[in-house]
Amino acid sequence: MSGWEYAPAPESAAVANLHARYRMFVDGEFTDGDGTPLTTLNPATGEPLAEVATAAQSDVDTAVRAARRAFERTWGPMPGAERAKYLFRIARLIQERGRELAVLETLDNGKPIKEARDSDIPTAAAHFFHHAGWADKLGYAGYGPEPRPLGVAAGVIPWNFPLLMLAWKIAPALACGNTVVLKPAETTPLSALVFGELCQEAGLPPGVVNVLPGSGDVGAQLVAHPDVDKVAFTGSTAVGKEIQRTLAGTGKKLTLELGGKAANIVFDDAPLDQAVEGVVGGIFFNQGQVCCAGSRLLVQESIAEELLGKLRSRVELLRVGDPLDKNTDVGAINSAEQLARITDLVAAGEAEGATRWSSSCPLPERGFFFSPTVFGDVQQSMRVAREEIFGPVLSVLTFRTPDEAIAKANNTPYGLSAGVWTEKGSRALWAAQRLRAGVVWANTFNRFDPTAPFGGYRESGFGREGGRAGLEAYLDV
Ligand code: TAP
């Protein structure tokens, strides 16, 4: 550890069991990769957190070979009831080391500790518990009496929910009898490497799970590897399209979970205070760096003024600051690059004539922070109404009739999620049938459950993760 300065306070570094160096996890062992090590930063300070080994093409080859061997010799032939025991063990270990993982996730990602503690970590554990239950019941999943695994699954994941996205990729793959090579995002590799420790602790046979940190190049090498049978990607639409082109004609099975520009629709009969809470949570949860964030508020004209007044008062109460403080509502943006993207798009919104309002909560002097921001007078043609900002920025549009609300909500190339706020159950169902979105929440937002399939339409991708439908991506049906 000598020669390395820890940026976070010593007590949080101790809770997170932070090491100065992290190594890749391949074939059941931690090893140095052939790539150039990267430095992961604490976005709340901009200072280094740890040095991380990265993979080169040679490491991708080694990891895929290890995964293939494990698939053929141990994991593939293992009865489902045995696989289930490992998944249950992993789920319990996530719970047991939950505090450590929550602090580590907050340090590496910048998200508020209360979100890491109450949402990311328990939801990741729940995903393993849920899929442990499937491992010996696949014959009852509706895909025939003996659905077979595909082989080696590659997972490439983003930085917004590092451990949860890992769980979404690894839990169903293992439950169905596949082995995995996972590439975490360059800016948030730490929880995935600690997950390697959990695999060791659970006694998982070597090669069943492999974690290769590195840049997008490692992701590209992994998905293109000829011995990979299945690819599951979550991230930007641009990279998703590139992967789809790479995989065309290879016969590899692919699922893509990409961007979004979700509408949160508030009708004039909605319980307003409840709707305001949902709208605020919908866009400011995880600093708005959520693919299904409710980044467009569509409010019925007759209640727009009242709702906006309540909204601004509520946003003004949000505390922006140190992500490790339990009272913080809005933490740090994950990277300087992401902060620059948000800043550019907000400048574009102002230049195009939208009215900007930002919270007056002071921002910390260092680190990557952005004030919760609400744009009024937004037109559908503006960039802030069309492009995924992936930051704490809400664009407000109004509508007169329910039909107009649906038309505006669907006026996007994306189709991942939507929200509807109304007192009338019939109106919620009417809207849900017309919204082109994989998930429609009624009188709530950003709720996740491992039993519910999640995924998009159009440029938000295809395939589902979670529930019975999510198993299909990992089975030869
Ligand atoms: P991406 O570039 O899509 O990154 C997602 C993952 O793919 C990361 O692990 C990344 O590695 C890897 N990757 C990059 N290029 C690749 C390639 N050619 N082949 C295979 N894998 C590759 O997202 P980003 O740059 O982190 O964020 C850019 C924008 O994407 C954001 O502003 C946001 O709009 C959107 N985004 C959406 C989501 C979701 S959940 N829909 C999540 C994150 C970002 P590196 O980490 O090394 O780049």
The hetero compounds bound to this protein are: 7-thionicotinamide-adenine-dinucleotide phosphate
Structural class: alpha/beta
The count of DSSP E runs of length 2 or more, i.e. the number of strands, is: 20
Global mean pLDDT: 96
Question: In whole angstroms, how far apart are the ends?
Answer: 49 Å
Structure, briefly:
By secondary structure, the chain is of the alpha/beta class.
Textual characterization of the structure:
It is a single chain. 41% of the residues lie in helices and 17% in strands. The protein contains 16 helices and 20 strands. β10 (230-234), α9 and β11 (253-257) form a beta-alpha-beta unit. The longest helix has 22 residues, at 113-134. 7-thionicotinamide-adenine-dinucleotide phosphate binds at residues 156-160, 183, 185-186, 215-216, 219-220, 223, 234-236, 239, 242-243, 258-259, 291, 338, 341, 388, 390. Belongs to the aldehyde dehydrogenase family. The active site is at 257. It holds the Pfam family Aldedh. This is Aldehyde dehydrogenase family protein.
Topology of helices and strands:
Elements: H1 10-15, E1 21-22, E2 24-26, E3 29-31, E4 38-42, E5 47-52, H2 57-75, H3 80-96, H4 98-109, H5 113-134, E6 148-149, E7 152-156, H6 162-175, E8 179-183, H7 190-201, E9 209-211, H8 216-224, E10 230-234, H9 237-247, E11 253-257, E12 263-266, H10 272-284, E13 296-300, H11 301-316, H12 336-351, E14 355-358, E15 373-376, H13 383-386, E16 393-399, H14 402-409, E17 417-421, H15 425-434, E18 439-442, E19 461-462, H16 467-471, E20 475-476
Parallel strand pairs: 1-5, 7-8, 7-10, 8-9, 10-11, 12-13, 12-17, 13-16, 15-16, 17-18
Antiparallel strand pairs: 2-3, 4-5, 6-20, 11-19, 14-15
The structure holds 7-thionicotinamide-adenine-dinucleotide phosphate.
Residues 156-160, 183, 185-186, 215-216, 219-220, 223, 234-236, 239, 242-243, 258-259, 291, 338, 341, 388, 390 line the site of 7-thionicotinamide-adenine-dinucleotide phosphate (TAP).
